[in-house]
Write a structure and sequence with these properties.
The complex is a heterodimer.
Chain A lengths: L5 E9 L8 E8 L4 E5 L6 H8 L2 H4 L4 E8 L2 E2 L5 H4 L3 E4 L12 H11 L4 H15 L14 H13 L5 E5 L7 H17 L3 E5 L3 H4 L5 E6 L2 E6 L1 H11 L6 H9 L8 H10 L40 E9 L5 E10 L4 E5 L6 H9 L6 E6 L3 E4 L12 H4 L2 H6 L15 H13 L12 E5 L7 H16 L3 E5 L3 H7 L2 E6 L2 E7 H4 L9 H5 L9 H15 L10
Parallel strand pairs in A: 3-8, 3-9, 6-7, 7-8, 13-17, 13-18, 15-16, 16-17
Antiparallel strand pairs in A: 1-2, 1-4, 4-5, 9-10, 11-12, 11-14, 18-19
Chain B lengths: L16 H4 L2 H17 L3 H17 L3 H25 L6 E7 L5 E5 H27 L2 H9 L3 H29 L9 H28 L17 H23 L16 H15 L11
Antiparallel strand pairs in B: 1-2
The chains are: A alpha/beta, B mainly alpha.
Chain lengths: 559, 299
Amino acid sequence: MSKPLLSFQRVTYRYPGADAPALDDVSFDIHPGEFCLLAGLSGHGKSTLLRAACGLVPHFDGGRFAGHVTLAGLDTREHGPARLGALVGVLFQDPETQLVMSSVRAELALALESRGNGAAAVARGVEEVALALGIDSLLDRSTHELSGGEKQRVALGAALAGKPRMVLLDEPTSQLDPVAGDELIGLLRRLNQEWETTILLAEHRLERCLTAADRVIALERGRVACDGDPQSFLTWAGERVPALQTPGAKLFSLAGLHPPPVGVRAARATLRLNGLLPEQDGPVDVDGGNPDGHDLAPRPKRRRRRVGNERLALSIRGIWHELRDGPAILRGVTLGLAPGDSIALMGRNGAGKSTLLRHAAGLLEPTRGRVERAGRVALLLQNPSDYFIHERVGEEASAEALEAVGLAGMAARNPRDLSGGERQRLALAIVTGAASDSQDGPPAVLALDEPTRGMDRETKAELAAELRRRAREGQAVIVATHDPEFAAACARRALLLADGRVIADGPASELLAGGWYFATETARILSGSGGALLPQEGAELLRARAALLHPPAPAEVVL
Amino acid sequence: MKPAMGMTLFYRRIASPLHAARAGAGAAWALSLTAATLILFHPIVLLALLAGVLGAAAGAGVRRAVARSLRTALIVALPIVLINVLVSREGLTVFARLGDLGPFGQGDLTLEALVYGAVIALKVTLLILVTTLAGLSIDPDELLRVFRRLSFRSALTASLATRMLPVLAADSQRLAEAQRTRSSGAPSGARARVALLGAMIGGSLDRAMDVAATLEVRGFAGARRAPRVTRPFSRHDMAFSASATAILALALAGRLTGAASFNAYPSLRMPTGAGTLTLCAALIAATLLPFWDRRGIEP
């Protein structure tokens, strides 16, 4: 076997002032050309491991470091990130902090220039990486006017410009819509296959990238808990950390099927083999009904709502948001939310989701159209940290509001020391408040803008449960999200926005079941059959189907 | 509340001859306008220069942003006129008497002080507009690249600062929005403002750490001098270079020949003959001619 490109040997690392180590006796080798996925819950050491691989730990972050990390034979104790930068490209989560120049061309050229390449080599390197990533049309654009997906591609281009042997990526798709996220993973796969670039990718949405990976390393409390191929990782996750299971694997596990599928294709192959795939009987009914005539799962009835005919918590009538000398961000959007409604707002980056929520909350005023609110609209913006201005949790929100989100015992802590999920709950307490905090009482509508960015599955499930609880209590909930699994878990109705227009509006069980991108993995595996979106619903459907195909033998009669 | 404006206050590559010119030529052209503003005092010639700059802003596609800058400039300029009228004791043409002002002497307001104040205000306005026009139309990365050959790190730091301006502006807008959505309303009072400022500084430091980490892995610590880049002069490079030379030459000629001479005190003296008017026309033409040719300006 070839010599490892990246090697961790008994690495233990503790951040300055931390009680517990972020990495604990970590050892593994990664060989040239491998596509390796790094899995684990939030705070279990994925980002730290990536920082250690490129030398930022310990050279940039400080702390106590034991063991050895070698990259292409260079020990990171002796060689800092600048030297290692020629061998490894790094892409962090937030593209905004990775673009340091004002134009795309200058951004791509910077790494090449700073390594002393000549003008011709710089120009050629820029041209080649731009063509390889399909960003040649962006070369003369300003970096601050790019979309999130474009920024992430440019940042990847900057990391790849020097043709590094390895690329480290820390949740690069967390801020991208499903289309841009899939494109990025496809691009990484192509780089891996065509250039033999070694990839080490940390990601929460494993279902998006598991099929591309050769190997998965799972971290648990800073230790390597599993290191194997995707199939064995899923088996391990099913037994040890169900929160790391992909929806497809969970579907199989709940339905009692084996082995856990690595992707949609593998899942469908297994179902087909067992005669459980609905499309075997003919084309799938686009309305969600089963083609063989059996309705295997109850379909929620479409609730047509005419805006203005009933008491609504929020009524948006034909609103436009047109920029002076610029495009129209919203084009005649009409939407009504009754108390207790839960709506998922989906669409690509730049479709107008965030703008619509800002109009709902009164942060923006439409250029045409009208917004009517039955009460306060609480808007939770994308970054919970933006809300924190005090040193103590208790100063940020009232005791009653903290109690409502389960943070009553944390009043004395610093908001910035909270975990991702706790931060989100504190921000929720700040925007919703308690009944006594506001003259208007509790909010009639709760609007959330991309609340699951960078969250692991466990934390997302907690947030979805909280939103369902609020909807049950009569609050109207509207969530803008790129995550179909989260949308399915928390919303009964879904809206698809494109280019500022509502292009689809219907029950989540229909809308999230019929697409390629805006569909859950369960729905894609089952071809949207029976409107099953979540693994539990899908497993029920499969069990019912299995019962139809193989009815239990009649009880033996003893004469 | 008004809908967000679609206007940017930072450099953005758009289809205009000035954006299409290399940063060096654009900067030379802006510097020549700055030099002309500093050299010339004749109010009519300065007004001609103002007309040229506003026309150039329209030609560069940044008319609205420059118009907004003009409003800001007027807020700065008006006090200059008022202060000069009130404090200057020179000039013979008294148009208002405020009487005895004690230790400040007689409060006589003169026409000469008014006109001189207006000239200074006009110069300040021009400097603000030229800076805005240059900031919106000249690629800062390309410009700072020239300096990176002299001092890589200083120039890169300047590039970074330029890049971070819109990012920090967006950050502060995001923070302000978040505070507006608090259930208790946006925090008010001195203590809350201090807390908010602390949060903003904390956020900026976090961002600075992330950017520093990015620079570190891109090899900033071992950075070397940027390579020299040679590329052929485009028609726009040549047009703006020629325009810069012409503007500077005209300003110097106006000063040396007396066509643009101006004395405010003790009484107003300024030529308004054919020479001055020709100079005005020539300055406007020299400023605007590079915008005439719009071939090959698409980004």
